[in-house]
């Protein structure tokens, strides 16, 4: 019997511990429930990480953890609701993550995956498309390679829109997935005061001014400065920040440092966030040598690696079966934190949490 | 706080009056219920506006208005039914309108949006595709740039098909949406005898022989000649009608006039139907100068504008926040009138209306 | 009143006998129920016809027949489950067949129909895509033009995958549909010992080494050698079998013969399986003259024709309304046998059959 024959005969294994339900359960236990911030998300657009305050983030992570720990939490609270999944910039991974979240809540989906067949391609204005979406769905998820598309569409909307990546501007739900992963890894960081010794050093390999995932992540980390000793940007660019970007983050309480070598700083880092290098264009790509992680990289014991995926050569697969691999848990958690956000935005929090009135 | 910040903080406004529920409620009250004509639509193909008699149209509009006024009218009567949404000619707007209608009724959808990947592209006959659809779905919505496709497919079908636009021939469900809008605007026009003074003058900017929306609309207006004083075609073509087309409309009781200037006739018109000019090709496009509407056009007070959308330059956005704008209500109503039609065609009228037997 | 007018007025006819419920009912009656083999399919990958033993096939056909005979067998047992329908090689027919099966069971679907927009196109590894799918769905249906894709993806999967055609290797669910058709046609062939006189001669027009449907069908026929007098391969290739392919089939008990002329052997055949000739490339296509079926072909009375469809010129439409046409029933049955398989794979057999425990 060959290896493949064995594999076909063997029942699939249950999910491993990291991706399992122990950690989300611990997160639920660690944080007190408060429906109020999620009720206030009702019918709100979600465009930027800036819109989330600390209390809202904590409740989103708590509800996400409830979904993750208890798949049958509630009986499909979004039955009859329609998501318009508009990916004018194609992205199978992000699209499926949102659509899986919506389907798990019982909702229906209309997908736009071929930009060339849309009115936008024929010159229809975003405001007119927004008016169409008002009538046809209950919430929109939009990805566009144009920074301004989500803002233009928003002017005509009476239903909420969720930004799933707009050019090099923001990708706030990816940041939710990133920080939710941190919350499952170390719930103690999210309970308020954190001892100096317990605070973490976060390394981010990427360019804050040119990577939407990095921009949104930094803004969201800025809601928890008491948990973060330092954020180290590892980049070989000359200009890493837009005008005012670094100042905004420092005003939020983050301590920032920029270095151009990865391995020297790696032993200090508790969290290493790495991104697909190709995203930032040709220049950085050629400079990328050395900015990659393998099993032989000098990682701190206990350090975790995050990556928004899909990955390229910058993150070696030999790390997959090490305890540093939290990027798979991060991808898995993305579904649950999007479930929590979407439940809030379409006003169904009262179906899944005890709420005073409603 | 910037304008955008304010907008993101502010809960979304409820829908305005025109798009709201007052008018559909008034329509429901104005027309007596009769399930019989809708029961007779069971399992019927819908290809042409010619298939709808007056009584059927009135009951479709009444049920559409019930759906529009009472979103929770019934608990997802099409659960378990499958729509095959086959857009061999891409159209996001019409596709989403049908799919939204179907999802709001609880049904499931299989979409074909990439004509190049289909058997048809590989030379498979429409009759064979029809046989496949028989086995896989409960109803088909077909858009094709070929006039004859729907007729060919129909030969092999045992499930109903709905024509969502076939070349330059017909687009009967767009006409349903158009006339449903008139019914919400002026229910009195649809109750039988109409006083001479109350009758309306309808202007249609377009070419009846070459625009499927115009062809289907005219046929449907022919079911209500007692409500219409005159139909004015505004066109700069020499030949506006196919052989027999004008005669058929006049035999139905419509009074037709053709003019080539818009502004002189505009002050007389109660309803102005305008279409995207590019649809009819290069010749008309260059002649189109002057055949457009703006806030400064000499519209009659109380006149309403209809447009099947998407629009081009022919309809200025400065009309959007005037009372002339009924084109947004028209797009919204398209979902509900398609819900009414689809409920009828898949034999579920007894789930939403009181019926004698069944 | 024209022919078309009549057709539009006439209610659709119910399905005819062949495609009706009499034969699946007879199949259900002919075979004893045993949930055990289907329970053992729980969470298993389905890649090859080799994985199905005789008892499993019989129970799949029996459950398929129950679904076909009793559309309302159970109340949507897959509600809340998500299918990832990944057609990296486009195929509307097979995709819709799987998606219809899943929807009829109440499940939700996320489709990937545009290979160019996926991570795979951007160089993402199949193992990483598998990890993504683990988190986003409950089962995967994969079609790929690469033989190895399904095997590579399988290495990273914790959810089951169903092979919907991998290059020229296999298409096991098509074989399920083929043999299910035989079971409805002649249930007596599947009850164990078969009289010599009752055994059938099966002709297969195609090349076993180069057609995945033929490869998978032959393997599955090998589970029922007692019912088959002979399998005749009609082909004009020099090399019809891969190394070991013929030997494996003969070891299973099949008697094989290869001929290069169709008409001389046709009067002996009880079952004629024909395939779209274009599938095997230019060489065979030019040799294909004569390897086609029409109403005038010397078919044995009572013989049935199978074809996986879509068809080309090799199968004339003048056969459609003869009793030889079982290819339409075959296409119809494909939905039900896939329903049976998917119900098993996602562990929901206990929802539709009486099971001892669970």
TrEMBL record, chains A, B, C:
Domain called Aspartate/ornithine carbamoyltransferase Asp/Orn-binding: residue spans: 200-344
Source domain of life: Bacteria
Occurrences of domain Aspartate/ornithine carbamoyltransferase carbamoyl-P binding (ranges): 44-183
CC annotations in GO: cytosol
Chain spans, region Disordered: 1-21
InterPro entries documented for this protein: Asp/Orn_carbamoyltranf_P-bd, Asp/Orn_carbamoylTrfase, Asp/Orn_carbamoylTrfase_sf, Asp_carbamoyltransf_Asp/Orn-bd
Protein's name according to its UniProt entry: Aspartate carbamoyltransferase
Annotated source species: Thioalkalivibrio paradoxus ARh 1
């Amino acid at each position: 019997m060959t290896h493949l024959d064995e594999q076909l005969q063997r029942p699939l294994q249950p999910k491993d511990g990291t991706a399992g339900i122990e950690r989300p359960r611990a997160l639920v236990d660690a944080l007190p429930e408060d429906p109020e911030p999620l009720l206030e998300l009702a019918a709100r657009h979600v465009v930027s990480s800036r819109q989330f305050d600390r209390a809202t983030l904590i409740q989103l992570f708590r509800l996400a953890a409830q979904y993750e720990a208890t798949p049958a939490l509630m009986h499909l609270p979004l039955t009859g609701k329609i998501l318009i999944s508009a990916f004018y910039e194609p992205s199978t991974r992000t699209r499926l993550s949102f659509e899986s979240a919506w389907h798990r809540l019982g909702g229906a989906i209309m997908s736009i995956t071929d930009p060339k067949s849309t009115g936008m391609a024929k010159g229809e204005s975003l405001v007119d498309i927004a008016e169409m979406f008002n009538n046809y769905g209950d919430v929109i998820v939009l990805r566009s390679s144009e920074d301004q598309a989500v803002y233009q569409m928003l002017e005509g909307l009476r239903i909420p829109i969720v930004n799933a990546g707009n050019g090099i501007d923001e990708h706030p739900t990816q940041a939710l997935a990133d920080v939710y992963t941190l919350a499952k890894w170390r719930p103690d960081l999210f309970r308020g005061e954190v001892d100096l010794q317990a605070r973490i050093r976060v390394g981010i390999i990427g360019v804050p001014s040119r990577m939407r995932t990095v921009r949104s992540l930094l803004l969201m980390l800025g809601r928890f400065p008491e948990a973060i000793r330092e954020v180290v940007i590892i980049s070989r660019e000359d200009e890493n920040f837009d005008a005012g970007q670094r100042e905004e983050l420092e005003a939020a309480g983050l301590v920032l440092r920029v270095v151009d070598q990865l391995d020297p700083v790696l032993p200090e880092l508790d969290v290493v966030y790495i991104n697909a290098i190709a995203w930032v264009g040709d220049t950085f790509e050629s400079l990328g040598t050395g900015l990659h992680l393998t099993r032989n990289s000098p990682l701190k014991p206990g350090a975790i690696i995050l990556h928004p995926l899909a990955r390229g050569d910058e993150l070696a697969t030999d790390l997959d079966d090490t305890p540093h691999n939290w990027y798979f848990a991060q991808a898995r958690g993305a579904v649950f934190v999007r479930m929590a956000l979407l439940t809030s935005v379409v006003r169904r929090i009262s179906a899944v949490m005890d709420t005073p009135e409603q």
